[in-house]
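Pasting as-is:
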Amino acid sequence: MRFRTVISAFALTLVAVACSGDETRSLEGAAAQVFAGECAAGSGSTVTVYSGRSENLIGPILEAFACETGTEVAVRWGSSTDLALLLAEEGDRTAADVFLSRSPGPVGFLESRGLLGTIEADVLALSAAENRSASGTWVGFSGRKRVLVHNLDEVLPGDLPRSVFDLTDERYRDRVAIPATNGSFLDWFTVFRDLHGTDVATRWLDDMVANGARYYPNNRSIVEAAGRGEIDMGLVNHYYQYQEAAAAGDGHRAANHDFDDNDIGSLLIITAATVTSGSENLQAANELIAYLLSEPVQRYLTTETLEYPLAAGVAPDQVLPPLKALEIGTVDFDALGGGFEESIAIVEASGILNE
């Protein structure tokens, strides 16, 4: 099944927790970890978000924003790729004010079509220059490192590869999983093409397929499969392994492996926020993006999902290893928008989706 088809209908949900009159209210659950005060009175303002980040992660943050500011938030949830394609289909008719993407590729795709606005300078300044667009169209608010997850019983330490290029060797035949339709993988593969050339990257993927690489739909399914010994190893984002290990305990028999420093397999992929070119609520849109970069939200992101924080001087959760490998500052993500579609085509042509 081809995965570039636009999903034309998403349900809009409304996050509305602000108080009115003499009523007071405080948040409960995960949202209270972001904001523990009393909710503000309704401001009469609404911001519409298309979120490629999952509801269980971003929902509490949006609920906290609505409570603290009094601004209602309407949300469409979906995959970053599908929402970007929907935004391209809607054009200036879109209701979206803010687009949140799991990765920069869909954002670059929209920028190449002139569908992004410019974030206010004081909001951009909340994040380091290497974590935001030079043109001001997007800003990163958390980071996910690419790693190789592996089964502890089936893969000996001396059998671990130093580079993703090693994975095409015969000794890794039928042992490696790839989340080929996942947004982070597509962004990673686009950077791979940018740094090593399209011919080299395409040959690597074709060689992986010829070597028996197996397709899984997403990172978590690979981590779960590695933990139960269904697959020996797979290319994933770092934090899924920590989450699964915490949930399953000793029964989860997997661990992360970092490739050599500066190997493309250790790239840090950022999650990105932007305002749309058709937004009619720019003030609320910028306030929401600034909220994502605030200290409480950055702390919540690294403690709850074990991602790397990118703003407010927040240190990564203590379980996370220091970032030493290929980081965002070495990659020009602004140049990758046009390459996103080509990466999808190369993945589809490789045959990995049939494995």
